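Chapter summary example.
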Amino acid sequence: MTDKIRWLSIIRIIGMCLVLAYHFFTDYLPGAFIGVDVFLTLSGFLITAKVVDKIYYGDGFSFFGSVKRRFLRLFPPLFWMIICALPLTLLIPADFRAGIPKQTAAALSFVTNYYEIFSGGSYEAALLPHLFIHTWYLALEMQVFIIWALLLLLIACLPIGSAGLKKLMLGLMAAAAALIAYMHMQDLYAVAPTNPAAAYMGLSSRAFPFFIGAACGALTGMDVYLSVGGRLKKIIIRLLGIVGAIVLIAALVCVALQINYTAPATYRYGILASSLITVVLILLFRLLHAHGDEYQEEPGLLSFMAEMSFGIYLFHWPLYIVFSNLDMIPGNIAAAGAAFMASLLMAAVFTYWIWPGWQISDEKKAELSIVLSTGLPKEKPDHSRLARALVLVLSLVLVLFSAFVIWRAPRMSTLKTNLYIAYLLHDADAIYDKAPAKEAAPQAEDDDPEAPAATPAQDDNPPTSNTQPDSPPATPSPDMTAAPLATPIPDSVDDPTPLVPGIAPYMEEGVLFVGDSVLLGAGRALREQIDSAVVSSEGSRQMWQGYEYIMEVQAAGELPAFVVIALGTNVNENSVKYVDRIIEEVEPGHRLVFVTPYNGNAGEQATSTQTAAYIRTLPDEHDFVAVADWAQAIGPQDEILGADKIHIGGNGAAIDVYVDCIMEALDEAAGLPVK
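The structure predicted for these 675 residues follows.
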């Protein structure tokens, strides 16, 4: 019976590289999360193929033995990663430790996928990245393995004498499960296309790559019979196999380039295509194994990296978060390189030192039994025992440090707290405003009909490049005024004290501010500058939603002479198009000010960065448009922003820069002709 198929290690390494590329360089490979599907497909194949061979050879199948082996494969390195990562978070802002007790509990109990779904988290939608969000994949694999192991036990126990018939039944069962999960993914995505966390992480949907691999494993098994053909035939097949493998790997990269987290194509064919490509790779490497030399081995480096791939996956994300937020690390590439090297080191330390130190072999158990029963120590000191003692002491120290981190972790991040407070101040301003807040149509909740891939996610999930700021549960009324944490509620709002001397046109004619949660933190400061201003800011608002709101206010005849648009931080592929529509469809007699969005972790290819670049070109084309270049103003000093390098709420210095930037642009706009 074949225990190992040569060259499958390449598939593990491909999956690892794709996942790392997605987390480190999302701007360039936005769909590289398909590396997870490569892992799932390979796991489904290997698990099922080995069981099928056992059934075929009459060895039977042990459910509890299989679950135990899977648990010991996943849990010890997971536990090691957690107790190593938690103390490192003391090096970065405390906001990253917010909610860490729940995250840790979810990771250790293999339910991270549902914890993230129910808490509204994902790689694409979080105010700050969760330290253990990547363990959703481990949770999914453990959950689907338990279900599949029960089905394997059922088939193995059936009173059917034909092993071939059992293989066929397993293959059909796996194919049916894959089809059901795939169809359920389509349903879940259709329900929430702008936040498809349930479709992306759910057991009932994302398990279908595992079952595709399982169907392949059920039909082929692990056994590979070496070819007895001539040398020339083997050489030709090897060359064709190598070329085919290169083509298939290139196809995976192409898929990763074409899809993203919220694109309909991802859930319709992207994940499915990556799973099928992985199956073809598995079959191709089986063929190469069959036509290889009997005693040929994989290159040592290849086998080593494949063995380390799981440990690298576990460590890379928390280490990347830590390194990305250390001032001594100069830039994303350096942080990514440091995270990879440190992950490789930690994976090797666990594999070759920690895990052996945690285990007690049968020989050691027998020896320990003799020592405990007789009380007689060995005559010579056992150096391996000393190493094991060091491992246990180190582990205990790390556990104590981790417990301290969990104990002292804040329940809520400062950023999220400031957003909640800003929303409350929104409501307070509406209640205490000297003039009743104007009623406007509620913000549309439907997706942009022209942008099926629109997402409320941020361009950058710090430290990656696709995050949205979290929105508190309550959605404020559109005409409420935002306010920063640092500004107290005044005793009387009937006596405003503008800080700008003189009377500018916008003081008399009015200004409408339309923005997202970044503007939310500066709303009250802007009202102190311009008493007649109307500030409409909502978390996760996108450019198309801002366009719809402006059109609604205009249709009601309440659009003031000056309109400030502070949007573009939240991802939408049509942001630039809606900038143009605002310019085109605003009625004559108005002046517009666009604020460039800023995300301190976004790369040059990020949507927010490209939107900012486009906004800077607008004054050259339209004489009634001015630009408040917030991105340029804050870029050199973004350390004064929140930990996510996006929000300003609660930070007086950042609020001052933001307000000054907008007021300068308004002064410039006052000197421009109207549309």
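To summarize the output: The mean pLDDT is 81.
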